[in-house]
Write a structure and sequence with these properties.
heterodimer; A: about 625 residues; alpha/beta; 7-stranded mixed sheet; about 20% helix; globular; B: about 200 residues; mainly alpha; about 0% strand; elongated
């Protein structure tokens, strides 16, 4: 039987793969979309879960809440996203800490990310020439601007036009109004000379493209039953499937790109996870959208006489200069917020955010900035145990008891600020094929990660702590002691994901479960020498902890300094393209999803044109 | 939609992509609303309690969360039937209710010569005024106090997870909402207490 030769095989279905699939399908190109996890349906997205979905309302099918105090949470877990670490391990080099938050399902991590959707600014593409650190991309803001426009018209992004050079405006959906605690943050920032603005979230507040307007359930992290936020599954892949030009190959783990004698990729070898069998699909071109390190792994595992170090790796650049977002959080208690008249406050998570506010870095001891995501406030929706603290105190019954419950019910008195900041690429952060030969369940060699934060990030985190303290104290808050205690220690929660945005999904990266675990107890080398003065900078968490790992299939001008060219086409193997965070030459003070989409859109249009011309 | 069973609704949901030319994103929310609708309202036949016991439970829950300024209480919110359904799946819990409701009747009989449900309102509240407070602990009252503590907990859980209860504590209810509105009074409350007043 003659095997089909697919024009394009897309490997991975997140923001990059979903975008490429939709754009190519709309341009008439036939796509085979390979995904290492299962298909999902709209019923997998449980954002509207309510106690009333269960006859027992959370007391449990055997009413066990009243006999064992163990009820059933009404919010059932989402479809399982994370791969099993035993089947699909990774390793971390001694002395490094790294956590890899992966997803295995159609839509990947877009099903449950926080929907923060920020355009990069010009300086984010030109760190070397404008900030003196890191690398310039071979493209600039003007190259991606039309694609940010296209992305916003398709997916919808809330926001308010502000004209800030650090946060370019887009084509915005009308944002939802600020919540009471967000008014406090806004005014506090204003007093300090910092401009806060409406959150830029991939959420639609008016119906568009057949999708419902947001219903303000605050559960974006669970995916959206009404498709009111962006996920590549329901915004791009399902509609693309309806063109009839997309074939989805789910539960299929890519193993290797197969090349011919000339070095050109002719097929993708993969494992059918349902049967464990190895198969191949023939192709004219391949798009790597497996998430940056996974794409690097595939390139490194694709060795042949013409690509002895792996595809795209003639200059030794695959896996190099991996970056992640710098994360630091601080919260405060604001008792005077209690007692505000209740309202349904979930919204779409945060309705405010604070873009980076310095354009002059001359007085700062770090070169790149951050933005702030805001959490807190809010009224809890009643579930089992509601009001218990009040009536256990007041006792009684009837109207006095109800009044006691009403009096105790109030807006949360916590406000949290989560910094999400730039990371300057450094040569100590990279991934490689594990030199000890660790393989996954299917015998595919796994990655080993190396990680080391530099002074740039540690100084940046210290400034996060200083500025967050100022914002929270200016609004009358009392800083909460964080993990590690007060000043001089961590003074806040570093590295972990904050609670700021809408309900998070279930992708907390697990610790690697392999033979060469992280060691060194996270002691930053900057603090190693005992005769140094006490380092008052927050200790940062493991690399990868914010799940914004980008780079390592980097874009540049030649194979000597990069893996792909300005169109995300592999220098050494022109029928292979990269469309995830891999091509990012540097890391911005913004979350990466929007730029992954814009860049993938541009790559897909270029690829379609190259196919039409017969160039690939 | 009202003629669909829940199974049919969910089945339609699962096959929406295969069956329709346009993706029916709204079907999920519709099925959700339908499932909620079947959970409340309608005549209820007790599954665990006898009709007499169930009637006593109705009286008790109505006293714990009464009609409040014209707004529905536990009775209108369907709390007694919800509790009875839970008793039907947990024998230990049912035993506590059978015993506790019996204690109410026995005690009322000796105090007022009638069952709890048949006693005047003043007699009912007089008894609750004793067993609704732990300070009244005594060998005689302890079985009543223990049962009332459980009944209060379940009545409050059942009431505030009902649509009626949620609307009472949060005027615009739980999502889905068609519009996100922040009451000016809530903003003013916070700002007037802040350093920015």
């Amino acid at each position: 039987m003659r095997q089909d030769v697919h024009d394009v095989v897309v490997i991975g279905s997140g923001a990059g793969g979903g975008t490429v699939t939709k754009v190519l399908a709309d341009l008439g190109v036939r796509v085979l979309l390979m995904e290492a996890g299962p298909m999902v349906t709209m019923d997998d997205f449980k954002n509207l879960a309510s106690p009333l979905d269960y006859w027992h309302r959370g007391a449990g099918a055997a009413a066990e809440w009243y006999t064992t105090n163990q009820g059933q949470p009404f919010q059932q877990p989402n479809v399982v996203f994370a791969p099993n670490l035993t089947d699909e391990p990774y390793t971390v080099a001694p002395g490094s800490q790294f956590r890899w938050g992966r997803s295995r399902c159609i839509g990947g991590r877009t099903n449950h990310y926080s929907r923060v959707q920020l355009r990069y600014a010009e300086y984010d593409f030109k760190n070397r020439s404008m900030k003196g650190v890191g690398f310039d991309w071979p493209i600039g803001y003007s190259d991606l601007e039309p694609y940010y426009d296209k992305a916003e018209r398709l997916i919808g992004v809330t926001g308010k036009r502000e004209g800030l050079s650090t946060a370019p405006d887009g084509i915005f959906q009308t944002p939802a109004p600020f919540k009471p605690h967000e008014h406090l943050v806004y005014r506090s920032c204003e007093k300090l000379g910092i401009k806060a603005t409406a959150a830029r979230q991939a959420v639609i507040t008016k119906a568009m493209n057949g999708r419902d307007a947001c219903v303000y359930c605050g559960q974006c992290g669970r995916g959206c039953h009404g498709a009111s936020n962006y996920a590549s599954s329901y915004v791009q892949i399902f509609p693309a499937m309806q063109t009839g030009r997309v074939t989805v190959l789910a539960n299929s783990m890519a193993r290797e790109l197969i090349t011919d004698a000339s070095g050109k990729v002719t097929a993708v070898s993969y494992v059918d996870k349902n049967t464990g069998q190895e198969r191949q699909v023939q192709c004219r071109t391949v798009v790597l959208s497996a998430a940056s390190p996974e794409s690097a792994r595939l390139l490194l595992n694709s060795k042949s006489p013409r690509h002895p170090q792996g595809i795209g790796n003639s200059g030794g650049n695959v896996g190099k200069y991996l970056t992640d977002t710098v994360g630091f959080g601080l919260s405060a208690t604001v008792p005077y917020m209690r007692g505000a008249p209740p309202f349904s406050s979930a919204g779409y998570g945060a309705h405010i955010y604070v873009p980076w506010w310095h354009t002059d870095h001359s007085k700062l001891d770090f070169p790149l900035g951050f933005h702030i995501e805001v959490g807190g406030g809010g009224f809890a929706v009643p579930g089992m145990g509601f009001g218990a603290a009040a009536y256990n105190e007041s006792e009684g019954y009837g109207l006095p008891m109800k009044q006691a419950i009403r009096d105790a019910y109030g807006m949360g008195t916590n406000i949290s600020l989560s910094g999400r900041g730039s990371c300057v690429p450094n040569e100590n952060c990279y991934c490689e094929i594990d030199p000890d030969g660790t393989k996954d369940k299917w015998g595919i060699p796994v990655l080993r990660f190396h990680w080391k934060w530099s002074d740039y990030e540690l100084n940046e985190a210290r400034y996060m702590r200083e500025s967050f303290t100022a914002i929270l104290e200016t609004l009358g808050g009392t800083i909460n002691a964080g993990r590690g205690g007060g000043p001089g220690r961590a003074g806040g929660a570093a590295g972990g994901r904050g609670a700021g945005a809408a309900g998070r999904g279930v992708i907390a990266p697990g610790a690697p479960g392999t033979a060469t675990p992280s060691t060194g107890a996270g002691a930053p080398s900057a603090q190693a020498a005992s005769n140094q003065p006490v380092d008052d900078r927050p200790q940062l968490g493991a690399g990868g902890g914010i799940i914004h790992e980008v780079g390592c299939v980097r874009m540049g001008t030649s194979p000597d300094n990069s893996v792909v060219n300005r169109f995300c086409q592999v220098h050494d193997c022109p029928n292979v393209f990269s469309a995830d965070g891999g091509p990012f030459a540097s890391h911005a003070d913004k979350n990466p999803t929007h730029t992954i989409i814009a860049l993938a859109w541009r790559t897909a249009e270029y690829l379609a044109e190259e196919l039409r011309k017969g160039n690939v | 939609m009202s003629k669909l069973t829940r199974r049919e609704a969910l089945s339609r949901l699962a096959t929406a992509f295969a069956a329709t030319a346009a993706i029916d994103y709204a079907l999920g929310a519709e099925a959700h609303a339908f499932v909620r609708q079947t959970m409340i309202g309608g005549a209820y036949s007790p599954q665990a309690l006898t009709p007499a016991q169930f009637h006593t439970l109705e009286q008790l829950t109505d006293l714990i969360v009464p009609v409040d300024n014209g707004k529905p209480g536990a009775l209108a919110a369907g709390v007694p039937s919800w509790i009875d359904a839970l008793l039907a799946v947990n024998a230990d819990l049912k035993a506590k209710y059978v015993s506790g409701l019996g204690w109410l009747d026995t005690t009322m009989l000796s105090r007022a010569g009638s069952s709890f449900a048949g006693a005047p309102a003043a007699q009912q509240t007089a008894l609750l005024d004793l067993i609704a407070f732990k300070k009244n602990t005594s060998a005689e009252l302890d079985p009543g106090i223990e049962f009332f503590t459980l009944a209060r907990r379940m009545t409050v859980d059942g009431f505030y997870t009902s649509d009626a209860g949620i609307h009472e504590i949060i005027p615009n209810g739980r999502p889905p909402l068609t519009e996100f509105v922040v009451p000016q009074a809530s903003i003013d409350y916070v700002i007037s207490r802040s350093p920015f007043k």
